[in-house]
């Protein structure tokens, strides 16, 4: 689909660069030429989700700038005592590596999907789901630890009261996204394993036949979850 | 789209160089993203390295502008790698890339507004509450 059909049925190559943007958007057809509707809609959903997380991080920034009380030092708050010494932020670092690894396995699952390697695709997707579940588990551990130490949305023992509300809001919403992603991954992995995308079996909810592109669309969501964590890690935990 | 080849058995060009233009893709209705596995492993390794670097920023307790600029640099590099390679944005047509990537950048305008607003809130708190909350 790298070509445009003219009125006399001839095809000519599509322009690229700025000319390509103008041509695609003004073509009186669909603007996203070689992207299926499923993929385009996932991208647009992710764009809207970007704004949601953007607003959370913005409100966190505003709260942190405008408070007169010192902000709790995340390096100390999230330190773990391992082998008799406090290691700063170690749990968060491990969570970051776990999520990045899950993104890596997901990218490879997409690749094997397009090679129609059913078995490897499903195994890699389940591995991604397992890493995602591990991440959520570690987050639950982190929440438990902070709650027992007295962190509440309205206050904490170390400083500015807004720390708790920002923390629970941002990481809670992100954890929810990861959890939904894990469920979504298991559903798609089951379809791949069963060979739905080879046999053209119709989905139970949409009654549509799926394609291996569904794995890539699933992957877009999963990479987005990892992407959001990159920003949360930088702004909430490291700043 | 330089590397995107049409889907099909045995067509997963393991040898595909980055400048590989695929005229074969034109014949198919869907253009799929197929790249050598090595590309993903390299990006994965880089994400690990960059994450370790940003963790070390905290571990060594750097602060001030050095800390903030390093955090932002590592963050942007990681985000760029994930979007460009893992999410295949580097191979999409610019019409999609600009539609998705430009709007979030405009959030920076909102950030600027809220920095002024938060500074003003802090100023009023200092001026009217003294040492209060």
TrEMBL record, chain A:
<keyword id="KW-0472">Membrane</keyword>
<dbReference type="Pfam" id="PF00510">
    <property type="entry name" value="COX3"/>
</dbReference>
<comment type="subunit">
    <text>Heterooctamer of two A chains, two B chains, two C chains and two D chains.</text>
</comment>
<comment type="similarity">
    <text>Belongs to the cytochrome c oxidase subunit 3 family.</text>
</comment>
<feature type="transmembrane region" description="Helical">
    <location>
        <begin position="40"/>
        <end position="61"/>
    </location>
</feature>
<dbReference type="GO" id="GO:0005886">
    <property type="term" value="C:plasma membrane"/>
</dbReference>
<dbReference type="InterPro" id="IPR000298">
    <property type="entry name" value="Cyt_c_oxidase-like_su3"/>
</dbReference>
<feature type="domain" description="Heme-copper oxidase subunit III family profile">
    <location>
        <begin position="42"/>
        <end position="239"/>
    </location>
</feature>
<dbReference type="InterPro" id="IPR024791">
    <property type="entry name" value="Cyt_c/ubiquinol_Oxase_su3"/>
</dbReference>
<comment type="function">
    <text>Cytochrome bo(3) ubiquinol terminal oxidase is the component of the aerobic respiratory chain of E.coli that predominates when cells are grown at high aeration. Has proton pump activity across the membrane in addition to electron transfer, pumping 2 protons/electron.</text>
</comment>
<keyword id="KW-0812">Transmembrane</keyword>
<dbReference type="InterPro" id="IPR035973">
    <property type="entry name" value="Cyt_c_oxidase_su3-like_sf"/>
</dbReference>
<feature type="transmembrane region" description="Helical">
    <location>
        <begin position="87"/>
        <end position="110"/>
    </location>
</feature>
<keyword id="KW-1133">Transmembrane helix</keyword>
<dbReference type="GO" id="GO:0004129">
    <property type="term" value="F:cytochrome-c oxidase activity"/>
</dbReference>
<dbReference type="GO" id="GO:0019646">
    <property type="term" value="P:aerobic electron transport chain"/>
</dbReference>
<protein>
    <recommendedName>
        <fullName>Cytochrome bo(3) ubiquinol oxidase subunit 3</fullName>
    </recommendedName>
</protein>
<feature type="transmembrane region" description="Helical">
    <location>
        <begin position="220"/>
        <end position="238"/>
    </location>
</feature>
<keyword id="KW-1003">Cell membrane</keyword>
<dbReference type="InterPro" id="IPR013833">
    <property type="entry name" value="Cyt_c_oxidase_su3_a-hlx"/>
</dbReference>
<feature type="transmembrane region" description="Helical">
    <location>
        <begin position="161"/>
        <end position="188"/>
    </location>
</feature>
<feature type="transmembrane region" description="Helical">
    <location>
        <begin position="122"/>
        <end position="141"/>
    </location>
</feature>
UniProtKB/TrEMBL annotation, chain B:
<keyword id="KW-1133">Transmembrane helix</keyword>
<feature type="transmembrane region" description="Helical">
    <location>
        <begin position="95"/>
        <end position="116"/>
    </location>
</feature>
<feature type="transmembrane region" description="Helical">
    <location>
        <begin position="69"/>
        <end position="89"/>
    </location>
</feature>
<dbReference type="GO" id="GO:0005886">
    <property type="term" value="C:plasma membrane"/>
</dbReference>
<dbReference type="Pfam" id="PF03626">
    <property type="entry name" value="COX4_pro"/>
</dbReference>
<dbReference type="InterPro" id="IPR005171">
    <property type="entry name" value="Cyt_c_oxidase_su4_prok"/>
</dbReference>
<protein>
    <submittedName>
        <fullName>Cytochrome c oxidase subunit IV</fullName>
    </submittedName>
</protein>
<feature type="transmembrane region" description="Helical">
    <location>
        <begin position="39"/>
        <end position="57"/>
    </location>
</feature>
<keyword id="KW-1003">Cell membrane</keyword>
<keyword id="KW-0812">Transmembrane</keyword>
<keyword id="KW-0472">Membrane</keyword>
